[in-house]
Design brief:
Number of strands: 10
Strand content: 15-25%
Structural class: alpha/beta
Radius of gyration: 21 Å
Shape: globular
Distance between the termini: 56 Å
Amino acid sequence: MTIYKTTKTTFQLNWYANPYHTPLFVAQSKGWLEEEGIDLAILEACSPSDVTEVVGAGKVDMGMKAMIHVLAAKDRGIDLTSFGTILDEPPTGLIFKKSMNIKGIEDLRGKNIGYIGHFGKIMVDDLMKQAGIPQTEYKMVRVGMNVTDAIMRGEIDTGIGFTNFQRIELEELSGEPVGMLRIDELDGLGCCCFCSIQFVASDEYYKNNIPKIEGFMRALRRAMDLTIEYPDEAWDIMCRANPRLNTPLYTKIFQRTLPYFSRDLLNVERDWTKVGDFCKHLDILKNDFDQNSIWTNEHVPSTGTPSVAPVTAGGVLPSKTSP
């Protein structure tokens, strides 16, 4: 057995270990991080709101956080660099049991609305303002990541969640169909990129550890390929690393998450531009900076070239330069 020289590296998750973290645990279990000289310690977040501060302060080497939070951290003077993406545009919105008879934003009058953190409240308040619904006609309730439990307890009528996570939880626990008002659709954004999940490090760590960043991304690329191509094997690895996930509910969440994994791990310029502009609309960003200056794809492994040549030289479609 080959023994690799490794250095301990810490990685902060954006929540407790859950299905959309699977590629990280695959890379660790398969030894691909070890091959890159990385002994990865994966840390769960007690408070998701603290991730950008912890990583930005250099208390943890690397981590992951939603795009909107990375931009907001930069605005507060926390310098982070995003060097890749793990989850692309998971649809996010207000989830509710169908028995609540919510069909549009007007139906939120008189409702208790749950939100995770500060930005969620800002987004909902802005939507209600657009709809002409005053804050006196609804109540915002901070529930953190426990939106499903809060709905089941009757503390809130609806709350912010992922279509591939909390929506499924609520379906399973309530035993009834669950609806969702997608925030991106209500705002006409054209994408749900503000909730894409990025790999991040402090600017200082990033600049001083380029070889490690590159090794990490090579290992994650291999793990992402396996997760997408052999999901059963990947999920088995995840459940062995985190036995509490080995339930029908979490298996369903994993299956619903598969379409949103980023196959190429790339940051998308369109998304950073759009989310930056959305943050400015929400008045989250107070300072003027280039939202495309805090991410890079320089260390994302290329997709490579096909292992076989086309049967017909040049392929069957004429190139654009052909006469």
